[in-house]
Amino acid sequence: MKIAIVGASGAVGQELLNVLGTRGLHIDELRLFGSARSAGRVYRFANNDIIVKELTHNADDFADIDFAFVSAGAATSREYADTITARGAIMIDNSSAFRLCDDVPLVVPEVNGPDALNAPRRIIANPNCTTIQMVVALKPIHDISPVTRVHVATYQAASGAGAAAMQELIDQHADIAAGKEPTVQRFAHQLAFNVIPHIDVFADDDYTREELKMLHETRKIMHSPDIAVSATCVRVPVMRAHSEAIWAETERAISPDEARTAFAAAPGVELIDDPAANKYPMPLDLAGCDPVYVGRIRPDLANDRGITFWTVSDQIRKGAALNAVQIAEYIIAHRS
Amino acid sequence: MKIAIVGASGAVGQELLNVLGTRGLHIDELRLFGSARSAGRVYRFANNDIIVKELTHNADDFADIDFAFVSAGAATSREYADTITARGAIMIDNSSAFRLCDDVPLVVPEVNGPDALNAPRRIIANPNCTTIQMVVALKPIHDISPVTRVHVATYQAASGAGAAAMQELIDQHADIAAGKEPTVQRFAHQLAFNVIPHIDVFADDDYTREELKMLHETRKIMHSPDIAVSATCVRVPVMRAHSEAIWAETERAISPDEARTAFAAAPGVELIDDPAANKYPMPLDLAGCDPVYVGRIRPDLANDRGITFWTVSDQIRKGAALNAVQIAEYIIAHRS
C-alpha cells in the first residue's frame, strides 16, 4: 500500500502519521507533501525519516499512490485534486471543498461506509468534525426510528482551528497568569476565559458555515434529505475534543433505556453514562481517544418524541485523521 | 430605608454591596451578617466601615429592617427565614429554598414584577441565575406569541459556584502554566481546559437540579404551567457571566426581524447582533454589566415556529444581586 499525506505538518497531518502508525494498514511507502514553507521538514514514520516535499502540479509525485490523505484547506484541495488523482490515487479530502458535490461521496464508515465504494472522481470527502461526531451518535437512534429533527449546541476545542490556535490558547493563559496582555491572532476574539459563538464565516440566515455544515452534511451522510438540523457552534477554551449537547426527535418515541442499549452496541460509540458516580464524557479526559463518547442520556422534556444526550470526541482523531483512515480501510476491506 | 445582607462575604453578598452603592435606593442603615467564620470582617459602604455580625436566631438583629437580602445557601435560608422576617422585614432570598413554594413569589421584575407585591410570608425568591437570564430574553418573544417550548444549552461561568471556585479556576491555569498539577476542590473535575456537563446534583430523569430549575422556575415566573423546557447545563472555564444557546417555539411563527425589534425594545435586554462585524455577546466582554445581552438571532432551521438566539449575562449581577435589588426597587415603587 502506498500512501501520501498532503498537509503533513498541520495538526491533522501530524495525527494522520500517528493513526497510520497504529492501524492495520500495511504501508510500503509513505510520501509527505506540504507548502513551500513546510517543505524540507522531516518526520519519522516506521523507523524511516521522511522529508516533506513541496506540493506542485507534478502528477508524477502521486504515481502508484493508493490513497492520498489531503488536509491543507479547501483552496488547496480544489487546486490540486486533478493532480493528486491523475495517476489513479484515491483522494480522501479533509476539507469542505467537495463535500456537497453529487459525484463525491461524503463518508463516515459507521454510518454510510458503502458510499465510499462509488467515487467516480476518485475523491471521497471526510465530513466536518462536528458532523462526524454527531452522525456516529445519531445512527443507532436512527436505526430504531428515523430521526426527524435535531437541535445541537457545540462546545468546540481550539484544535479545530489548527495547531497554531492550540498554541495561542496556551500562550494566552500563560500571559494572563504572568500579568501580561494576551495576544489574539487565530480567533476573532480572546478565547482564554471566554466562549465565542462564531466558527467559520457567517452565511445564510445569519447561521455560520460551520452550523450549516451540520445541516447539509448530516442530510447527505444519513441519506435523509428531510432531516432538519439547527446548530449553534461555539468555541470554548479547551485544547482538543469537541463536545455537543444534542436533542434528537424520532418518528416514534424512544426511551432513554432503548437509546442506551443502542449506543452500547453501536460501532464507534462508547457509553460513559453513570451520573451517580459523576461519570459523563468530558473533553479533558478524552483527547487522543478514538470513539465518540455518549452520556447524559435522558428524555427530552420539551418533546414527547425526543431524546437528549451529550457527546465528546477528539476533533483531530475521529473528527478528522481517524475517520479518513477508516474510509481507506473500508474501501480496502470491501472493494471487489 | 434599612437594609440587611446575609452572606455578606460571599460572591453575591459582595456584589450586593456594589449594586446597592450605585442604585437609587436611599439607605439609612446597612447591616451585614455572615457565618461565625465571616463575623468580624469589615466592609466599606457609603464611607462607613460596617462589621459583619454573626447570623443567629436573635430576631432583634432584623428589627426595623425593610429588606433583607439573603445569599448564604438554601439550608441557611430555611433555618433563618422566620428570624429574619419576624419583625417585618421582607426577605429577598437568593437560594432555591422557597422558589417553588406556592406562598412565595418568584420574581424577575421585567417579567412578573407585580407578583412581588403579594408575599404573604414576607419572603420573595430570586430565581436561579440561568433562569433569570433566559426568561428576560423569552419575555419579549412571549409577548408577541406565547412560548410553547424551549431547548437550552448553557455555558456557565465559574462564578456560579462562588468566589472560591473562581479563584480555583485562576489557580488551575496558573499551576498548569507553571507545569504543576492543578488542584481540584470546588468542582467535580478540573475545569481549566475542560467543560463539565454537570451543575448541581442529579435528580429526576437523570437531569440535574440546575436543569430542572430552568423548567420549573420558568413555568412559575412566566405563569405558563404548560411551557416545556429541556436544558443541558454545562460549566465552562469562564470567570463570570453565563451564556445560553436557546431555541424557543411560539404558538405562531415569529421572524428574526420581529424578534429583533422586540428584543431592542424590551426592558433589561440589550442587543449585540451584528455578525458582519463579528459582534455578538461574549462573557469575557460582559462581566460586571447589568443587561441580558442577546445576539445570533436567526430562524430555527428545525422548527417552522421556532427562533434561536444566544444570550450572555453576568451571573452574579443580573443573575443574582442586581435582580434581588430590582425586586426591592419594584416593591418600593409600586406598593400602595
The side-by-side strand order for the widest beta sheet of chain A comes to 5-2-1-6-7-8
Number of strands of chain A: 14
The pair of chains with the biggest contact is: A-B, 58 and 58 residues
**SSE string of chain A, helices as H and strands as E:** EHEEEEEHEHEHEHHEEHEHEEH
**Content of β-strand of chain A:** 15-25%
Please, could you describe this protein's structure?
Two copies of one chain form a homodimer. In chain A, the strands form three sheets. Chain A has a six-stranded parallel sheet with strand order 5-2-1-6-7-8, sandwiched between helices. A six-stranded mixed sheet of chain A has the order 10-9-11-14-13-12. In chain A, strands 3-4 form a two-stranded antiparallel ribbon. Chain A is built from nine helices and 14 strands. The model of chain A has no long low-confidence stretch (mean pLDDT 96). By secondary structure, the first copy, chain A, is α/β, with parallel strands linked by helices. In chain A, helix 3 links the parallel strand 7 and strand 8 (123-125). Chain A is globular and about 60 Å long. The first copy, chain A, has helices at 11-22, 74-85, 109-112, 129-144, 163-177, 209-221, 256-265, 283-286, 317-334; strands at residues 2-6, 29-34, 42-45, 48-51, 53-54, 67-70, 90-93, 123-125, 147-155, 228-232, 242-250, 269-271, 292-299, 306-313.
Please provide a brief summary of the model:
The structure is a homodimer of 336-residue chains. Chain A is of the alpha/beta class and 336 residues long.
